[in-house]
Amino acid sequence: MIPSKQDILNAYNCVKPFVHRTPVLSSSAINELAGTSILFKCENFQKMGAFKMRGAVNAIQNLSEIQKEKGVVTHSSGNFGQAVALASNELGIKAYVVMPENAPSVKKEAVLGYGAEVIFCESTLKAREATSKKIVQEKGATFLHPSNNLDVILGNATATLELLEEYPTLDVVLTPVGGGGLIAGTALSAYYFGKNCKTIGGEPSNVNDAFRSLKSGVIETNETSNTIADGLRTNLGDINFPIIQKLLKEIICVEELEIVEAMKLIWERMKIMVEPSSAVPLAAVLQQKEKLKGQKIGIILSGGNVDVKNLPF
In which residue ranges of the chain is CATH 3.40.50.1100 found? Predict the structure, then answer.
């Protein structure tokens, strides 16, 4: 059973006082290259620099008072950790963030800066989950999954709701696909608030578990996490996958070089900072421009938390 239109509207009312209504920008140079009209919903300008603030606020707001007293814990390579840290700080709640040792230093510093307690672990999903579980047992904190949590998904859906309020005639909305929380939320808003608006995912070929999951009908995993798009190394979950299966049109897989080129294009032509994960949907449009030609396209620029000392171009 997928969430209702009212569930998204409730989430929007819940997050609205705590998030920015981010701008929608376009670039005539990029439109010319793509052979179509693209509108970029700039969640890189969101508080803490990514769409994840929306899901974190909604999930925390929906906890009981007893849960709020004991705090929250999450595991994240960066953006959701930052979102939980900042949202918790603004709502007066204790936050614990489990981070892999190899998370970008810019993201580690930001989580600490927002006042969360950071616990480092090995950079495997198994280590993240085990460390989070230990904190739940020891501190009584509530675990917030970065992408496989209905309140997080509904919070994430509000970015596309805002985009479609401003541009109701979009044909397609594209987002990157990592853990599935953004694409599931986007697909819900496109379904309820768009006019025959399709949702398409962009995913690195090196970690194309969602692409394979959509084909096989079961949640697939990756053997490696070898992609520059560090926000997209996670797997789908049992809460977001049914939404994705029901509402997603397709997933386009892109190569590492295509991601870097798309990222460079956004930096150079639009003069805005985006992280590699954010560039994946544009890479997908440029790769499939014959197929998408002439369609009105929305892209969610998911985040801008990038280590400027370590750019890929």
Answer: 5-49+153-310, 53-143
Amino acid letter for position 136: V
Within 10 angstroms of residue 101's Cβ, the number of other Cβ atoms is 10
Torsion angle of the four alpha carbons 104, 108, 110, 113, in this order, in degrees rounded to the nearest 10? -160
Asked if residue 305 lies in contact with residue 50, where contact means CB atoms within 8 angstroms, the answer is yes
Distance, CA of 259 to CA of 257 (rounded, Å): 5
CA distance 229 to 175: 13
Residue 70 is encoded by which pair of tokens? Answer: 């004991």
CATH number for region 53-143: 3.40.50.1100
- Residue 64's pLDDT is 97
Q: Is 293 a catalytic residue?
A: no
- Intra-chain end-to-end CA distance of the chain, in Å: 44
Q: Which of 27, 47, 76, 77 is catalytic?
A: 77
> What CATH architecture applies to the domain 5-49+153-310?
3-Layer(aba) Sandwich (3.40)
Closest CA to 176 of 313, 85, 37, 275: 275
Question: What pLDDT digit, counting tens, does each position of 137-195 carry?
Answer: 999 999 999 999 999 999 999 999 999 999 999 999 999 999 999 999 999 999 999 99
296 catalytic, yes or no?
no
Over the chain (313 residues), what is each successive 10-residue block's mean pLDDT? 96 97 98 97 96 98 96 88 95 94 81 93 88 96 96 98 98 97 98 98 97 96 89 92 96 98 98 97 98 97 89 90
What does pTM read for this prediction?
0.95
131 secondary structure, DSSP code: H
Of 27, 41, 47, 52, the catalytic one is 52
Measured CA to CA, the distance from residue 304 to residue 301 in angstroms comes to 8
